[in-house]
Design goal:
Layout lengths: L6 E10 L5 H16 L4 H18 L5 E8 L2 E8 L20 H9 L2 E7 L2 E9 L20 E4 L5 E6 H13 L7 E4 L4 E6 L17 E3 L4 E4 L10 E5 L9 H19 L5
Antiparallel strand pairs: 1-2, 2-3, 3-5, 4-5, 6-11, 7-9, 7-10, 8-9, 8-12
Helix pairs in contact: 1-2, 2-3, 4-5
């Protein structure tokens, strides 16, 4: 049964027989889909190649496989269908090095936003989900030698940028984003300098031009260093997270820019004499 909301097949299903170049065709299929939806293909290509390899290994003698690409709202589902009549579960833990199966699904689970198996009739479908909104970015994780409870200095421009605004405007921007149901990534709060910083995917610096003294957003990108406070920092600290980096989501720049403009207009209107 197809979902009734936000469901759209992006390309006709691709039927593949068991052949030495099948995995290469699966990679090309993933690249084409990602190009269409504007998604970085690196992880989807790796995942679909793992799923295709897994299907060929276990189901190649049962009629090959079929690849499908479906958009579900703001999610991309890359699906590998086969006719192998066996029950499959996604590994909860990394398989032992001596295990003969399960590693491909484990790798796919680590790279995708979600992984699920649907059993149908005589076979099954393994579906890998990827976020389409906001644009992708990855927050650098502390190394094993770093104290996870200490602040750390992180270079911007590689995996994220920061758009910084004054505190009053920043809180108004947050209200606009929440009202519009926009996914919000991590948000920094510099209490000492009364600034709020929104983490966004890496973008050419100065993509947000300062419009007036009230907005004056600053874009920190390549060459900038950003202090990350430790998670769970008390609200009384000079630098805290208003929204902690619990996922890889970063705020979409286009939507953030629109929210800044709307919030600045609202604040300016309220400041005019005679305006409530």
């Amino acid at each position: 049964m197809k979902p009734t909301t936000g469901w759209r097949e992006l390309t006709p299903p691709l039927r593949l027989a068991a052949h030495p170049d099948t995995v290469a065709k699966a990679r090309r299929f993933a690249v084409g889909v990602c190009t269409e939806v504007g998604l970085d293909p690196h992880e989807p290509v790796l995942v679909l190649a793992e799923l295709a390899t897994n299907a060929l290994t276990h189901a190649g003698a049962y009629g090959g496989l079929e690849l499908r690409a479906v958009r579900l709202g703001n999610m991309l589902s890359l699906e590998c269908w086969d006719e192998y009549p066996c029950h499959v579960t996604i590994p909860e833990r990394e398989p032992d090095l001596s295990a003969e199966s399960g590693r491909g699904l484990w790798i796919a689970r680590q790279l995708a936003a979600g992984l699920a198996v649907t059993h149908h009739g005589s076979g099954k479908a393994v579906c890998a989900m990827f976020d389409l909104i906001p644009a992708y970015g990855r927050l650098p994780q502390p190394s094993p030698t770093q104290n996870p409870y200490a602040p750390r200095l992180v270079a911007a421009g590689e995996t994220f940028d920061v758009v910084e605004v004054d505190e009053l405007l920043g809180r108004a921007v947050l209200a606009v984003l929440r009202t519009r149901n926009v996914p919000i990534g991590p948000v920094l709060h510099d209490r000492r300098h009364r600034k709020i910083g929104f983490l966004i995917p890496p973008t050419p610096v100065n993509d947000i031009p300062p419009r007036d003294r009230r907005t004056s957003p600053r874009h920190h990108g390549q060459g900038a260093w950003i202090t990350f406070p430790p998670p769970g920092q008390p609200n009384g600290g000079p630098l805290t997270w208003l929204i902690e980096p619990t996922t890889h989501h970063l705020t979409d720049l286009r939507r953030l820019r629109t929210a800044i403009t709307e919030a600045a207009h609202t604040l300016t209107s309220r400041a005019r004499p005679g305006v409530e």
